[in-house]
Amino acid sequence: NKHKPWIEAEYQGIIMENDNTVLLNPPLFALDKDAPLRYAGEICGFRIHGAGVPFEAVILDKATGEGLIRAKEPVDCEAHKEHTFTIQAYDCGEGPDGANTKKSHKATVHVRVNDVNEFAPVFVEKLYRVAVTEGKLYDRILRVEAIDGDCSPQYSQICYYEILTPNIPFLIDNDGNIENTEKLQYSGDRLYRFTVTAYDLEIQVKPTCKPSWQGWNKRIEYTPGAGSLALFPSIHLETCDEPLWNIQATVELQTNHVKSLRKLCGAASGEIDLLPVPSPTANWTARLSVHYSQDSSLIYWFNGSQAAQVPVMNGLHAHEGLSDHFTLSVWMKHAVVPSKGRREEETVICSTVQSEDGYSHYSLAVHGCRIAFLYWPLLESARPVKFLWKLEQVCDDEWHHYALNLEFPTVTLYVDGVSYDPALIHDNGLIHPPRQEPSLMIGACWTEEKNKEKIKGNENSTDTVQGDPLLIHHYFHGYLAGFTVRPGSLESREVIECLYACREGLDYSDFDSLGKGMKVHVNPSQSLLTLEGDDVETFNHAIQHVAYMNSLRFATPGVRPLRLTTAVKCFSEESCVSIPDVEGYVVVLQPDAPQILLSGTAHFAHTASDFEAPDGVPLFPNLQITCSISHQVEAKKDENWHGTVTDTRMSDEIVHNLDGCEISLVGDDLDPEREYLLLDGAALQQRGLELVNTSAYLTITGVESIAVYEEILRQVSYHINHGAALYERKFHLSCTEMNGRYSSNEFTVEMNVLHNMNRAAHPNHILSSQQFIHRGHHLPPELSGHSLASTHNNAMVPSAATIIIVVCVGFLALMVILGILRIHSLHRRGMGQEVPGAAAGGHTSTGSKDSDMFWDDSALTIIVNPMESYQSCQERAAENSEGRANKDMEEDDDSTDSETPDSPDSNDVDDRHIIGKSDSSHRY
């Protein structure tokens, strides 16, 4: 909220006693240069200052700033005939809470209370008594008096008195004097009683006929998107029966708003404002006289003795790329100054530019009704060339839009959107070159005359010294606004025509039924419409079809002043009538805001290889952009309506053009070494769009249709480099239209990066658990790309493990059984040897000792590791088998030696046979 609201300095108002609305002149409107921003550019209300003021101010339209003053209670002329107080407007601040509200200056309001005839006359005395002598005629017997309580002389004066009682010999005049009309006799009626009434003054004045326009409204409301609106649908000209033979009427609509429509018309950005709002960083306009247009745009007045020296090295890059390709654009209002006449040249802009090849110089100036452009390609070698145009618009004291395209040696001038080729080209080779120093001046130019003395003192040196003070001359006298320069490239013809023509203006919609002898002319800017005819009735019909047209569906709200000027010619020049001007205004109402909706897939996942591909993964593959207002104005069904429909269709096209979209990141910025966004910048340049791609955001700017923006945004892709450990990203997308006035919703997209995991890089327990996952089990979709182990390679792993486990367990069970059998055999041998030993009495202690060493397997526990490899189980089984075989052989040898050869035991044969089978079955 940078600016304060603005209102008039003084208002005159009238209010009737029986009404509560104050009629103000001028109407109460508050303007704010922050418009059309919400809150900051809106007027929230008015405040009235003063003790005991019986009025209040209300806001009718926050967007237009229209207000109304009304009485809080009935006003009384008899108590106060006039009221004086001050009023102040305030904006809505920076948000709904009204923070940082700014107030306008205080304006003085004078309100006069107009009286109405509300009081009846009242006699001073209710009863009058008087005695007279008989036989006399009196000039005045008695005077009665009545008074009126109204405050104005119009209603407070007593007009006349009247005797209501009939058939009495008395008479009363207008002053209340009563006299007798005949001599009174005492012998007759001794007492006369009669009633007298008084009448106050109520003059009914019949106005004299005055030629003028009748049946028009001062205030005309226009709803954006309504197409054409008749300005004077019921107007007619009152001539008071005066014969006329020629009528000329001019309708003027002040629509020359300075506010730029560059984005709406599709102009590329990059223009530089040469006359910005005064600020600490742009202070060269601070000393200029400032005016404001109806839409609060800034207008600078050059009085013929001041100029603006733009500091080239103070952050203004107006000279970058400004060599032989650039576009100058300015609104100018200029008239021939009587004191200067048509002789002196007035400079609009004068500049010396430094480029890689050297210094170049150019200037734009007006000379009477001519406009001249001087261009010096190279001060060191080339010769200057001057291009001249002779145009009436230069000196008609009206606002016009000028755009100059330089593509040397071609120069084209556009005035109000119409192109003009130079009328004359001069080779001004004798002009002294300016100093070779970058400089830029608006409203005047410099000369080297101060350096003549130095040149005379040193004939060998004709170069000027940098830093010398400049002599300023050729000052401009007029108004300038919206002065911009676009270096490096030219605006197209379509853009320049749109900059001037795609606004509101006057329109005539009834050429088909135009009467005989009628002429209608509309200027190129559609701000001035002229009608001419010789018949009053035909003229009335024609002017009733003058319409206001606005091609923008979302027009800038505000007030457009309107004026109707009429000139007539009579058969008798001496008694010819004069038609007063008609002044009113068109109020463009606040349009309904469009709803721009972005929709599409908000979450998806892809494998890392997809993101690592050269084209990356699209961010918005199925993006849809819709607008809630898809309205197209149709022609009215009234047969008398002949409004144009093509203009309203064009307005809908402009409505559905976006002027920018931005993709921002949620969280940390992009790491350029690992990730980035991809978009073809060449394709955007072909469409006239600009691309800014940084690590924090990606923006696309320029006016294009929704379909084009959809196509472009669907091509934006996200790419990551190979091996980057990135897993997810979130992006925000938002778009705007109408110079950023309306914004879309914030569409969020979340992307997941799915990585493949390497088997060899993980511990064995992870692999082992993965090996026993059921083959019919499906992973969830978000993990479909995370393959921990290949299912094809592990298809046979469970079968091999089962075989190994079965073989190992079977082998160990067999060894246990063999051991038990071996122990049992040895036990039987010991029992067999114990009986002979007892008889012989020599081996009892030995048998008991051996029996104590037998293996007790009642609590035997076998632990098997199922994950041991098949090979290790085979090796271990072989070693165990060999060890036990050798041990058995040794035990057999010992037992054989200890046994008696004469009595061999049959169990020994069985034991050896079983061991042999066990060996052979285990070793094959």
TrEMBL record:
Residues 7-123 form the Cadherin domain. The lineage of its organism: Eukaryota, Metazoa, Chordata, Craniata, Vertebrata. This is Calsyntenin-3. The keyword Kinase does not apply. Pfam families: CLSTN_C. Postsynaptic adhesion molecule that binds to presynaptic neurexins to mediate both excitatory and inhibitory synapse formation. Promotes synapse development by acting as a cell adhesion molecule at the postsynaptic membrane, which associates with both neurexin-alpha and neurexin-beta proteins at the presynaptic membrane. Regulates the balance between excitatory and inhibitory synapses by inhibiting formation of excitatory parallel-fiber synapses and promoting formation of inhibitory synapses in the same neuron. It comes from Anas platyrhynchos. The chain crosses the membrane at residues 800-821. Interacts (via cadherin domains) with both alpha and beta isoforms of neurexins (NRXN1, NRXN2 and NRXN3). Directly interacts with APBA2. Forms a tripartite complex with APBA2 and APP. Interacts with low affinity with KLC1. Interacts with SLC23A2/SVCT2.
